[in-house]
Fold this protein.
Amino acid sequence: MEKLKLRVTIDRPIGFEDSYGNVYPINYGFVSGVIGGDGEEQDVYVISKEATSPMNTFEGVLVAVIHRKNDNENKWVVTSEKEVLSEKEIFERTHFLEKYFDSVIEVL
């Protein structure tokens, strides 16, 4: 099965600090035109060896969905076409935010 290719607009680049004091160790953004469970554009974690510095956009493939049991939205995980991410790697890289939620990672 071919992976879904996406263009992510980064609105919280590496180093961004949100109003709760969380500092983002990875780029985080959204996919324009795709609406998530919260009525806003779909949120995306970018985890890639090609995305190790703050970015404005990233093109890659959807490799996982993080299902939040105690929230009205899920998060997508995107990486480069050449990379494969394990569930453990996704968990470790997204834990800075997902620690606040009851989440399950579905690797696609």
Notes: Residues 13 and 55 are 6 Å apart (CA to CA). The chain is about 10% helix and 40% strand.
